[in-house]
Amino acid sequence: MINIINYKKYFILSGTLVIVSILAFMFWGLNLGIDFTGGSLLEVEYTKSRPQVTEIQNKLSNLNLGDIVIQPIGNKSMLLRFKSVNEEEHQKILDKLRENKKEKTKSVKTTKTTDNEKVESVGKEQTNNKIIEKRFDSIGPVIGQELKKKTFYAIIIAIIMIIFYIAWAFRKVSNPIASWKYGVIAIVALFHDIIITIGVFVFLGKFYSVEINTPFVAALLTILGYSVNDTIVIFDRIRENLKNYDYNFENTVNKSVNQNLLRSFYTSLTTLLVLFSLLFFGGDTIKSFVLALIVGIIAGTYSSIFLASPLLIVWEKIGHK
Length: 321
What we know:
It is a single chain. The protein is of the alpha+beta class. The chain folds into two domains: 7-35 and 140-319, Multidrug efflux transporter AcrB transmembrane domain (Multidrug efflux transporter AcrB transmembrane fold); 39-135, Alpha-Beta Plaits (2-Layer Sandwich), CATH 3.30.70.3400. Helix content is 62%, strand content 15%. It has nine helices and six strands; from the N terminus they run H-H-E-H-E-E-H-E-E-E-H-H-H-H-H. The strands form two sheets. Strands 2-3-1-6 form a four-stranded antiparallel beta sheet. Helix 6 packs antiparallel against helix 7 (214-241) and helix 7 (214-241) runs antiparallel to helix 8 (249-281). Mean pLDDT is 82; it is low at 103-126.
């Protein structure tokens, strides 16, 4: 049996990651998208070649759209973010984007002579690079503020319900620590996972302009459920092993973690394989959602084994002092 419970080094690692994430959030903050700040998002696809970003900025410069964020997608598509606009302004933007310069292309005509020699004659024609509107979303600042509030309430309600559920599920476990303490420790592990995930996206937003929108909120709520599930499985094994309690709580917890170690690892690994497939081969619109899940599941697997279980031992030792 591997001695996994060496909580000091785990606490140092987790504490460092959490502190760095909090400091990054305080100084830089999240790069909020239009779902929270309000604004418009337009995605277009060019039938031929995509123009340069500077060319698009020049076309839209006289429309008073504020700060325009232009993000190339794939080979021919482009995502534009700007202030909230009405339908009339929306159509003006599309008209400006459709003002493509005519490109001269060579058409080659091949003929054969009597000597079977090929002769190429070059002509010239003019074609337009058309655009296809794939998506347009416009959200007012009032709706953005409302989404912020609802996001906060959703996370708080989910956390409170998790505490009540764990306290009820472990209500018959009172020795050597009370059942409600399992719930509190599970929530500490959840905060650990959420804070680290947010910290990663603070850095991504700062250095790679990754924006936070409603799919990110859905990812956080999914992480809450996934992480607490992994933690409860280990806690449940501890509860089973406490039926033959030998008055060595640290040994009981270490035994329980060892019994679930491979199960947690394999479950997370298979989930991550699917998520990485979606990250590399899925659409651009779900990449932030998938990336948040990847970070959260890695942090959640770690915290369930190396943070939540050692915290039980620490709390038990404090109770006997």
